[in-house]
Write a structure and sequence with these properties.
The structure is a single chain. Strands 1-2-3-4-6-5 form a 6-stranded antiparallel beta sheet. A 5-stranded mixed beta sheet has the order 14-21-20-17-18, with no helix packed on it. The protein is α+β, with helices and mostly antiparallel strands and about 475 residues long. Helix 3 runs antiparallel to helix 5, helix 3 packs antiparallel against helix 8 and helix 5 runs antiparallel to helix 7. Helices cover about 25% and strands about 20% of the residues. The N and C termini lie far apart (about 55 Å). A hairpin with a 2-residue loop joins strand 17 and strand 18. It folds into 3 domains: about 120 residues, Phosphorylase Kinase, domain 1 (2-Layer Sandwich), CATH 3.30.200; about 200 residues, Transferase(Phosphotransferase) domain 1 (Transferase(Phosphotransferase), domain 1, Orthogonal Bundle), CATH 1.10.510; about 110 residues, no CATH class.
Length: about 475
Amino acid sequence: MSDGDALVGTLLGGRYKLLEKQSDELLGSVYRGRDVVEDKLVQVKILHPHLAADNTRFGRFLREVQATSMVRHANTIEMVDSGTHEGLHFLVMEFFPAHTLEDELAKGTLSVDRVAHIAAQIASAIGAAHQESVTHRALSPRNILLLDNARTGDFVKVRDFGLSKLEHFDDEESTNLTEMGSRVGNTKYMAPEYIDRDRFHPKGDLYALGCLMYEMLVGEPPYTGRAAEVLSKHVVAPIPKPSEKVPSVPDWMDDIVVALMGKSPEDRPGAYKLVAQLEDGIGHTLAPPALADPAKGAVKRSRGSKKPALPMAAIAGVIGVLVLLGGSVLAMLGVGLVLIFTWDPGDQAPSVAPVEISIEEPAPAPEPEVPVEPEVEPEVQPRPSPTRSNPRPRPAPAAAPAPVVQPVAKGRTSVTVKSNRKALVFLNGDPKGFAPITLQLPPGNHRIEAMLPSVPESRQKQVVKIDKGTNDDVTFTF
């Protein structure tokens, strides 16, 4: 069996008949199909056959299987099944008539009202993904879909999580899924920290959304030119305001776009805060419109609640693929963690700065010798909407153990932090890397903490005092 148009008419797994080829994408071809068992239209993505033997690309395909099934929201695409057929690997997704934001922008710029509605739905989808520790990493006009069966307004679907980074399933041994020195995504929408430090923070998705909003308002991306020039501008160039090109853009929209394009992740609002800001600016709730069912002509109101869990048959199909391919692919999916998420008060979106391997000398902490922890603001849930899901609450972390003050010894001014398990190390609240790690410290008091990946309640703290001497190694036991 060959790929391409010759697959039209094929009955995959005895259930999904391919009716028409729609497009070719990086990892596979997309077809309109029919589920002959339930007699309904579906969308099928088939991995390019020549990529099945490529562990890197096939690893990304398996990521799409997992990411698509984890993120369930009205503004994302629901995956209903997956499997193999005569050596072909495929995903089955819900079908809807749609066109891309790229196609829409080819007609011209969008009004402020449309930009606000589209951006709010993208933010809601990305916020839902972040709650599942999934980042998109490749937002662009091509993977934002506008449904053609919306009765009024724009109904958005975010697609292509195949290039996303699953935080709970990426570790140091699986970095070969992205070739050394390469970066996933479109340079026009790439966050500064990803360019100059090769660290993708979840709020890199919000940076890309800021670039998309600028392009929707102005008609071109915020930075243009050759690829290398665009990358440099993302890092060092001033942040442009849409009103500089389109004077009719209001100040509040300028402020939102500029904040989203902040050079540091901490400068950008989280996904749910962004929705609230857009609603405040536009003056009303930004809810997705009603949909007309293309098969029955009925009106279907969007829902923000989570969709049913992925069928066991789909999960079994993925496991079967892994078994057939052997241990090499399984090794790529070892459980680990690259980025650690915490949740912003009042937003529920991840906001911890990316882990940096380079060590910077922090400023000396003020007296008293044992620093006082800052007060934690109470968590504020995003404002409820009848058509937008509220974020899933996170359990409050357990209280950290009382700090232990280490003795001071004469000699060098550095501390080596060790742990009996792989733990992320924080210096004065900033993540520095995984233990074991040596920290160079100036005189003064320093708060050193360690936490097991994805287990915030495991966070432990010790305080060391540096006074022109050397502290003994700091050890954490979990």
